[in-house]
């Protein structure tokens, strides 16, 4: 019987190493990217550091109230206020804003890259055939694996954390944009075409507005995935609540780990409900 | 009448080996053979027809007959495999994307079976869509859209959203959107098929009313022959991608091209299509200015009737006389036919649909007299002939 071990091992690991080595020669490009992403991160962080905690809580409660004007979800608002007060009380506030910064930056970049990519996939079957397996790959590859090249390209800190999160979190935005546009009824596309719309007019006036709620669901998913990356990203120096969990693991500190984990859960629920509410509100 | 739209050899083949399938089609192979050899399906097989300016041209067929494909090739929503579409002599197949967009914006508007309204836009914005994408400013386009909504009787609904309206109202919006563009050609794809029967009938009437003043060239797709007969100036019947027959509603009913069409028209409500002219028969008449009672009696005896119609020298209807009264005159040796003429005769015109007079025919004993616009007697309608026509027997073609 043929023993596959006897033939030479296929050097996949070597190939990937060579590829990463080859990529690292574009230091200028990665430095530029680092300062760009770093700029976004610093921007968010600057805003969060500037806003007093009480004002931040009021803003979150206010947005929730406005987004749910019809349903008046007082329970959610009370949860948000108490949850944020708890985070403040536990002295996790600064960590929480760092985590939020990581999530928002990753989501923003996912959005900027993901939506056009999703549109392209919706418009071209060839693009869809090419990107679909790549997206599957991005999502199923264990997220830890992304940390290694991320460090190679961007060093240690928030930026490689954002990079790894973007790769892990972007697929839902792309997929849902594609799906949302493809789900627009044929008759509406025909209507848009038969009145002489250009491709751009069709996209802006018909396809994107009708795909909006699906697209928003994708963004919501991306944010949740980005949030799930914070603990992993903390291993390469992305500061935040994830760092607290990571340190607690190292110190075998079950209580501290739970407290930080609870803070992540509170943040996750707030982000999830807020984005869902914004989506609902825009539907007729 | 000028020809507005001309379709020549328009063909659509779905599938992969289109070129080979096209060759086989030209060699006269059947659809089944082509499907077997190439795997390609013939959607529309070399359609040829002309649509006159200002007429309603109905393309009729069951689902799968290729009618929807055909209408979509006219504005190239579906790219034809072969053939040409000429609008005012200009071949749509030869123009580039930008020119095609221009034709779609200015010359052709489409109305869809399921309305095709944008759910995220208000009724007004839906109606103004065609104008909006042409870059017309908001004030002008809203004004035109409001005029179009007025035309279809939806004044004041501009701020609502499509889901807030009933099906019939939504399709009125679809029609208004097409009218707002002021295109010369309307393509209506099963436009009324999704509506309930009452609404459908209303919409048909409204379309005919609008057409009286607008004189658009309308290509109307339908699977309902009654609808086709009601609104169509010409009807084209399709089957399996081929044109079976093209003609006026009357042509189709009186001279069905083959068994398929015959089966189709079996269930038609003929009373709406046939006119008094179609079912009238030649009356027995006497000329009041020449003929006397004896001749009247002789005519009645010859034709085995008990009444005879009285006309003057110009063949204008004077009235009707009964055999008993004439016998009385003969016995009194009087020649005064005028004294026994009953002038109370129900009359109608040749163009009147039978449906309109059906009730009266069944109630009055005296046959209807059919007059032309000079009040001349053209024929009479007896119950037997009406029933025969409605049952599908031969009718007159001289009306």
UniProtKB/TrEMBL annotation, chain B:
Gene Ontology terms, MF aspect: ABC-type quaternary ammonium compound transporting activity; ATP binding; ATP hydrolysis activity
Keywords: Amino-acid transport, ATP-binding, CBS domain, Cell inner membrane, Cell membrane, Membrane, Nucleotide-binding, Transport
UniProt signal peptide: none
Span of domain ABC transporter: 19-265
Domain CBS per the UniProt entry, residue ranges: 280-337
Keyword ATP-binding attributed: yes
Membrane topology value: Peripheral membrane protein
GO cellular component, one term: plasma membrane
EC number(s) recorded for this UniProt protein: 7.6.2.9
Entry's Gene Ontology BP terms: amino acid transport; glycine betaine transport; response to osmotic stress
UniProt cross-references to NCBIfam families, sorted A to Z: proV
Family: Belongs to the ABC transporter superfamily.
PANTHER family to which the protein is assigned, alphabetical: GLYCINE BETAINE/PROLINE BETAINE TRANSPORT SYSTEM ATP-BINDING PROTEIN PROV, GLYCINE BETAINE_PROLINE BETAINE TRANSPORT SYSTEM ATP-BINDING PROTEIN PROV
Subunit structure: The complex is probably composed of two ATP-binding proteins, two transmembrane proteins and a solute-binding protein.
Protein name (Swiss-Prot/TrEMBL): Quaternary amine transport ATP-binding protein
Organism: Latilactobacillus graminis DSM 20719
């Amino acid at each position: 019987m043929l023993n596959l071990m006897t033939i030479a091992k296929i050097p996949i690991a070597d190939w990937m190493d060579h590829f990463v080595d080859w990529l690292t020669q574009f230091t200028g490009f990665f430095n530029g990217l680092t300062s760009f992403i770093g700029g976004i991160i610093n921007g968010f962080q600057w805003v969060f550091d500037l806003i007093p905690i009480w004002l931040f809580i009021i803003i979150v409660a206010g947005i929730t109230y406005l987004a749910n004007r019809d349903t008046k979800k007082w329970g959610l608002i009370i949860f948000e206020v108490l949850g944020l007060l708890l985070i403040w009380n536990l002295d996790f506030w600064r960590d929480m804003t760092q985590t939020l910064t990581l999530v928002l930056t990753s989501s923003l970049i996912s959005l900027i890259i993901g939506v056009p990519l999703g549109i392209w996939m919706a418009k071209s079957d060839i693009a869809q055939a090419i990107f679909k397996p790549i997206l599957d790959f991005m999502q199923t590859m264990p997220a830890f694996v992304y940390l290694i090249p991320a460090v190679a390209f961007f060093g240690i800190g928030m930026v490689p954390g954002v990079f790894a999160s973007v790769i892990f979190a972007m697929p839902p935005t792309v997929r849902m944009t594609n799906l949302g546009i493809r789900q627009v009824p044929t008759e509406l596309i025909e209507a848009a075409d038969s009145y002489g719309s250009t491709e751009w007019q069709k996209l802006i006036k018909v396809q994107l507005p009708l795909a909006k709620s699906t697209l928003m669901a994708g963004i919501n998913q991306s944010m949740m995935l980005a949030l799930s990356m914070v603990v992993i990203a903390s291993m390469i120096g992305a500061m935040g609540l994830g760092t607290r969990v990571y340190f607690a693991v190292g110190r075998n500190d079950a209580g501290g780990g739970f407290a930080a984990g609870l803070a992540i859960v509170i943040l996750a629920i707030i982000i999830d409900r807020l984005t869902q509410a914004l989506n609902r509100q825009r539907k007729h | 009448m000028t020809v507005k739209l001309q379709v020549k050899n328009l063909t659509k083949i779905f599938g992969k080996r289109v070129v080979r399938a096209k060759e086989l089609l030209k060699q006269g192979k059947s659809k089944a053979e082509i499907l077997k050899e190439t795997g390609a399906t013939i959607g529309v097989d070399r359609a040829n027809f002309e649509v006159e300016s200002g007429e309603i041209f109905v393309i009729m067929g069951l689902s799968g007959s290729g009618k929807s494909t055909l209408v979509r090739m006219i504005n190239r929503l579906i790219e034809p495999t072969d053939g040409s579409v000429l609008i005012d002599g200009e071949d749509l197949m030869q123009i580039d994307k930008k020119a095609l967009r221009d034709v779609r914006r200015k010359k052709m508007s489409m109305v869809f079976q399921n309305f095709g309204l944008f759910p995220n836009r208000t009724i007004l914005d839906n109606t103004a869509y065609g104008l909006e994408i042409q870059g017309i400013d908001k004030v002008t386009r809203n004004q035109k859209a409001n005029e179009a909504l007025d035309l279809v009787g939806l004044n004041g609904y501009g701020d609502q959203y499509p889901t807030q309206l009933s099906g019939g109202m939504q399709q009125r919006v679809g029609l208004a959107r097409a009218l707002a563009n002021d295109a010369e050609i309307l393509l209506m794809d099963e436009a009324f098929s999704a509506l309930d029967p009452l609404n459908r009938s209303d919409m048909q009437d409204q379309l005919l009313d609008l057409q009286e003043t607008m004189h658009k060239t309308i290509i109307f797709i339908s699977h309902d022959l009654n609808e086709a007969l009601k609104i169509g100036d010409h009807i084209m019947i399709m089957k399996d991608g081929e044109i079976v027959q093209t003609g006026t509603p009357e042509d189709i009913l009186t001279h069905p091209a083959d068994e398929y069409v015959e089966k189709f028209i079996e269930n038609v409500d003929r009373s709406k299509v046939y006119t008094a002219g179609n079912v009238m028969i030649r009356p027995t008449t006497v000329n009041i200015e020449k003929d006397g009672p004896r001749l009247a009696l002789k005519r009645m005896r010859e034709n085995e009737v008990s009444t005879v119609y009285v006309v003057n020298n110009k063949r204008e209807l004077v009235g009707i006389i009964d055999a008993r009264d004439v016998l009385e005159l003969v016995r009194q040796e009087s020649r005064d036919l005028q004294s026994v003429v009953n002038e109370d005769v129900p009359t109608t015109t040749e163009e009147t649909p039978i449906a309109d007079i059906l009730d009266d025919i069944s109630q009055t004993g005296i046959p209807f007299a059919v007059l032309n616009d000079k009040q001349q007697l053209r024929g009479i309608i007896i119950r037997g002939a009406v029933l025969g026509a409605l049952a599908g027997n031969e009718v007159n073609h001289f009306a």
